[in-house]
């Protein structure tokens, strides 16, 4: 064989090796892959059941990260350059042009505010700041009644509207938004769309405790989600119970993680928009089952504000929505209260 023929043979061999290795890399599959990270000031996780080609998985992960980054850019009050921050700092009554995604969340927030009789209100940012729970608040403290009255005048979902071209219109210059009780759920739903569009049927998504699940877990059964026992101990992993979800969302709001204590009294970060004050009740947490996570997220907050009597009565009028209240009595004992279909819809079982 001549030197020229040897070179041609070597080149051909290298090409074959490159094509073979490249093909192998493209065809590599991962079984039951999972990923996670940080977003919206909390953590997120995504789990998939089954085998997924690595190259397709990389594209899915890139899409998820890009989508969550964009949602954060639009709706995080902790980002001074976000859409929501720019709207909040604008005193103009002429209208604020926002993205369609942002507009979609605000529209739903306003709808739920009306349906809940004001128990849910996306315009609480001034009050959250006053109490020290907001992104622009200072030290946490219990404000006096006069301060609450003055700031409360700059809130109210009835002072905000959104037109067909996605312009936010306020009738009060100081109106500003806080979407922390609905944006995480929206983010979960958006990640779910990415997985569904990729042809995946069995998956689990969680952002800051808000969950959307589809299909089954790697054991071939519906995804099992623990409902945390309400305790102020951040190291506790104790569960109150477990729900099973094959398709739908679970969200929980509670007063045992984000709160302040003054003169021996615990004040929750969840404010009652109707009074401007932190919710003080025997409700320790509220868990909601709903078809989508954006609604579940917002409804959990609204129901916490309402309390079990008003809240469960309202849930009974809603389609495909169920709830569980955890009530703490004077001795600290926790009792469970359910809407009529919660146990059947979620397969709830107590872990205690």
CATH topology of the largest domain: T-fold
Main structural class:
alpha+beta
Distance between the termini: 80 Å
> Spans with pLDDT under 50 lasting ≥5 residues?
8-25
For the record, the CATH architecture of the largest domain stands as Roll
Evaluate the radius of gyration.
24 Å
Quickly count the helices.
10
Organism: Pontiella agarivorans
Protein name: FAD:protein FMN transferase
Catalytic activity: L-threonyl-[protein] + FAD = FMN-L-threonyl-[protein] + AMP + H(+)
Keywords: FAD, Flavoprotein, Magnesium, Metal-binding, Transferase
Describe the protein's architecture and organization.
InterPro entries: ApbE, ApbE-like_sf. It comes from Pontiella agarivorans. Keywords: FAD, Flavoprotein, Magnesium, Metal-binding, Transferase. It catalyses: L-threonyl-[protein] + FAD = FMN-L-threonyl-[protein] + AMP + H(+). The chain has 352 residues and is an alpha+beta fold. The chain folds into 3 domains: 31-77 and 180-205, no CATH class; 83-170, T-fold; 222-350, ApbE-like domains (T-fold). The protein has 10 helices and 20 strands. The protein has helices at 3-27, 54-75, 83-89, 100-115, 125-131, 145-152, 183-197, 293-306, 308-315, 342-346, and strands spanning 29-31, 34-39, 42-48, 51-53, 96-97, 160-162, 167-170, 203-207, 210-214, 223-228, 239-245, 247-254, 259-262, 265-268, 271-272, 277-278, 283-290, 322-328, 334-338, 349-350. The model is unreliable at 8-25 (pLDDT under 50).
